[in-house]
Design brief:
Layout lengths: L1 H40 L2 H20 L4 H7 L5 H33 L4 H8 L1 H7 L6 H5 L3 H26 L3 H21 L10 H35 L2 H14 L4 H17 L4 H28 L1 H8 L8 H17 L2 H7 L4 H25 L1 H27 L3 H25 L8 H23 L5 H14 L4
Helix pairs in contact: 1-8, 1-12, 2-4, 2-5, 2-10, 2-11, 3-10, 4-5, 4-6, 4-10, 6-9, 8-9, 10-17, 11-15, 12-13, 12-16, 13-15, 13-19, 15-18, 17-18, 19-20
Length: 492
């Protein structure tokens, strides 16, 4: 019975993982298309203005993260009163954040010496209210690994954002195209949350359930405060020292760099946290699941990251054009930083599943201290590449700290991590070396053909190298995908 349950959980996790993979790939692809089109219609300063407004919005959002969603996922059978209490507190939080952003906006505009920032912040803050009253029932799509429903919600909303942003950019040619598109996307998520999930929340403010939510969520809140400062301090430093244009360049570099890092980290966290939570009483099963996740994450993220690193010049020119070429040195550092963060943060779902969210908060706090000590002097001396070096230093600290604590809590040794990471590291080294050797011989090709040839060749060499190592990472996932695809063509 236990074996059957584990097999069912494994199949459910694989199915959920496929849908979440499709969701993240699709939304990232749509977001990238949106960025590419808008990068040619708008200027880095336009992107920078929104980026500087998002400093205020993101800090307010993340420092008040309640962790209630994580609480509902971690509890095996949350009561209706607990769910309604979570929704009520989220709605109150949304109204509070809108008011806070409205009042802070003039100060932020004065601080950054940008008068237009005031109205931009207040406009974006409307989304706080919309997000606060979104249907809490959609949390259970993640808890039950039903990411097919999340796929519907996010894809439709992303398409609304894409089409409205691009359409308005063709007409307005200014920052308001970005703002209206983002608001429309959030409004779509709100409407769809009630259309695709039958749960109907009601107001509930039971002290007992509020206390229960905060007991687990307080560490999520602590992590959120630290994480907000960590992810926004670079934008803050660049905006204050260098201005809106450099903010736009830096954020675009971050967007490209995180294709292989942050998104994969997010994807894995969404699947592994609920899966690990089910295995919280089975330490050996949890360890085996972690090893498989680490193998999969490293096998996917390393080749994508190294391809971006090796082909950065061609990628930026093809996707964005000449006006964005100055971001390339910064992009290369951010790719390395993101790869370390992706592997290091695989430990966090383990901590959450074991009911130890404080460790993530402590790690992020240590990371923030490292970044805060370096970000301002490095940005002042070296601009956006200096900010990227500060982030790299912080993520090195997280990576090493994660390895140490995993060894103590779960007996996952350093040698085991080396064994997991060595095949993809050697394979990407072989891939990158081969591309660097071949690149001088492809200069006569058109840039689109050259870039396509380089990517296809690099991935083929990487896959071949992994095969030589005997690595079969993701084969169960591939077989499951092929089985699903073939079933579509069967005659019923």
């Amino acid at each position: 019975m236990i074996v059957t349950d584990r097999q069912a959980l494994s199949q459910k996790a694989i199915s959920g993982g496929l849908w979440l993979l499709a969701l993240r790939v699709s939304t990232r692809f749509l977001g990238l298309i949106r960025s590419i089109i808008l990068a040619r219609l708008l200027t880095p300063a336009d992107f920078g203005l929104v980026g500087m407004a998002m400093i205020v919005i993101a800090v307010l959002d993340i420092v008040t993260q309640t962790g209630f969603d994580a609480t509902l996922i971690q509890r095996k059978e949350p009561s209706r009163n607990l769910i309604d209490a979570a929704w009520t507190l989220q709605a109150i939080r949304g109204g509070f954040l809108f008011l806070a952003a409205f009042l802070i906006a003039p100060w932020a505009a004065h601080f950054f010496h940008l008068s237009s920032l005031d109205l931009v912040i207040r406009f974006i803050a409307i989304s706080f209210i919309i997000t606060g009253i979104r249907n809490v029932g959609v949390v259970f799509f993640q808890k039950e690994l039903r990411f097919d429903q999340s796929f519907k919600l996010e894809i439709i909303s992303s398409l609304v954002d894409l089409f409205l942003s691009v359409g308005l950019a063709l007409i307005l040619r200014d920052v308001w195209a970005l703002l209206w598109g983002g608001l429309a996307g959030n409004l779509s998520r709100f409407i769809l949350s009630y259309l695709i999930h039958p749960y109907r929340p009601t107001l509930s403010f039971s002290p007992q359930h509020v206390k229960s939510l905060f007991n687990f969520g307080k560490w999520i809140l602590g992590t959120g405060i630290v994480y907000a400062l960590q992810v926004q301090i670079d934008i803050f430093a660049i905006g204050k020292i260098r201005g809106a244009k450099d903010v736009g360049l830096y954020q675009m570099a971050m967007t490209i760099a995180t294709i292989a890092t942050t998104e994969i980290s997010y994807l894995i966290r969404q699947v592994t946290f609920p899966t690990f939570s089910i295995l919280q009483d089975d330490m050996e099963g949890l360890k085996r699941a972690y090893v498989k996740v680490c193998q999969l994450a490293s096998a996917i993220s390393l080749p994508i990251g190294l391809l971006i690193l090796a082909l950065a010049d061609d990628i930026v020119f093809v996707l964005l054009g000449h006006q964005w070429m100055n971001l390339i040195p910064c992009l290369k550092v951010l790719v390395i930083s993101g790869l370390l963060a992706t592997i290091g943060r695989l430990a966090y779902p383990v901590f959450l599943a074991l009911g130890l969210p404080k460790y993530e908060a402590l790690f992020q706090g240590f990371n923030l201290i490292v970044i805060a000590l370096l970000i301002f002097p490095l940005t002042h001396m070296h601009g956006i590449i200096g900010a990227a070096w500060a982030l790299l230093a912080g993520n090195v600290s997280v990576f090493l700290s994660s390895l140490i604590l995993l060894k103590r809590l779960a007996n996952l040794s350093y040698f085991l991590h080396l064994k997991i990471l060595l095949p993809p590291i050697v394979s990407v080294t072989f891939m990158t070396t081969t591309l660097l050797i071949l690149k001088p011989h492809m200069t006569d090709m058109g840039i689109f053909l050259r870039l396509s040839t380089e990517i296809i060749t690099g991935l083929f060499i990487y896959a071949l190298s992994l095969h030589i190592f005997g690595v079969k990472i993701g084969m169960d996932l591939i077989k499951f995908s092929l089985k699903r695809i073939s079933s579509l063509f069967k005659v019923k």
